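Risk mitigation, structural track. In case the binding assays with S-adenosylmethionine fail to produce interpretable data, a predicted complex structure has been prepared as a fallback.
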Amino acid sequence: MRRPFKDKRPIGPLFGQSSADTIQSRLTSGVREDIGFEEGGSVKVYFHSSTNMDELKNGEIALFVTSPPYNVDYTYGSINDAKPYREYMSLLAKVFSEAYNKLMPEGRLCVNVPTIDKTNADAMGEGNIPVASDLTSMMVDDPSLGNKFSTPEINELKRTTDYSLFDHIIWNKGRFDTEVNLGSLGIGRPFRFEHDITHESILIFQKPGMRNLSTIDQDRLNASRLNKDWWTSGPGYEFDTNAKSNLWNIRPSNKIEVNGEKVPTFPEELPRRLIQGYSFVGDIVVDPFAGVGTTLKVAKDLDRLSVGYELREDLRPEIEKRVGESV
Ligand SMILES: C[S@@+](CC[C@H](N)C(=O)[O-])C[C@H]1O[C@@H](n2cnc3c(N)ncnc32)[C@H](O)[C@@H]1O
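Fallback model:
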């Protein structure tokens, strides 16, 4: 028995349509009971590790959008995110192997990670971790080149998947969330100067093959169309680049408070661009590290179905508040 959700929003009409026969209502009338969407609902969250996504059929997912846990500058209460790096990469390898099975041909996996992590570095900058480039080489380098770490999970990823790097977007956060850290070496001194980190990476990996677009009906194609506004303007456009550029200037969102704990989220503009750019209305979008459900909320706003995986069941009420339905 599912808990009733009190603040259930009616499902909005699709892109200004007022007809009862909206794509959304067709999408959600009894759709995919195997996934467990509620009648009329379009978001489902499983509260277990995304190393296993058995609820999804192989080859059916158009898009994954995620920001993996990592103890860069925040804590997550009960979940220990401060894993040793090799273990962290092994977790990603396992989840992204599973994602590969679930992706359709030409499907995309978008991963937001720090470009460089300096949290473990000493004063000389030794020990900085190049997260984005390590992840890229783990995901796409020829297996014969080996990997920085050889773990069973990473070896399995290399043996069983064939991702390519489709794009690398730099998310420029500006200086909005950083403090100027002069450090003991002082800002006036060259040579050992350290930059503040004001950008992150969004790596977009692709499964080989071509999606058969002829199976998508005309209504869905029309509703998914990217109009001129999408390319040129939007709430996150702080400076003078647009969604077509691979430099995205987007103000970071504030951490939100859940049970007295500060939880980080990425800004809605980030999954919005990825979902609009890489999926059609009615596709299933998955976030394997769902957090408080930003990806799922945006997917719903954009008339996509969405599935999240999250270890922390205490985040359920916050997710439900955001997506406006029980999950
Ligand atoms: C960086 S947060 C995601 C934040 C999300 N982008 C948002 O805006 O809310 C990463 C989340 O992954 C969850 N997590 C960690 N390991 C996991 C696993 N193996 N399976 C599923 N979720 C996991 C953590 O509990 C955390 O909530």
